[in-house]
């Protein structure tokens, strides 16, 4: 029973990815060009962002995914560390976190300066 359900879920995921790649080929190609991001994560990010039609800029996507920095301070003497907020999409945040490991593994030893500059340019080019 579990094996059958797993196979059905995998078949539906494959069909959904195929439909996304057919109807939104250019967007999926751009998302898959990000180091560490594969077909499944690109599809999930595209669906999470609503096709990027509801967002005005990249900051809204960062806030929606719960990746924006937040500092906790209390009074004048207690200063906490800056951490990311945990509000927002936990599933997409986890997927992007795992993709960062794949990107680091692919790019870090050979081209250490490429990661920071590539990400900076990528963020600046977002609408």
TrEMBL record:
<dbReference type="InterPro" id="IPR003346">
    <property type="entry name" value="Transposase_20"/>
</dbReference>
<dbReference type="Pfam" id="PF02371">
    <property type="entry name" value="Transposase_20"/>
</dbReference>
<feature type="domain" description="Transposase IS116/IS110/IS902 C-terminal">
    <location>
        <begin position="29"/>
        <end position="107"/>
    </location>
</feature>
<dbReference type="InterPro" id="IPR011257">
    <property type="entry name" value="DNA_glycosylase"/>
</dbReference>
<protein>
    <submittedName>
        <fullName>IS110 family transposase</fullName>
    </submittedName>
</protein>
<dbReference type="InterPro" id="IPR047650">
    <property type="entry name" value="Transpos_IS110"/>
</dbReference>
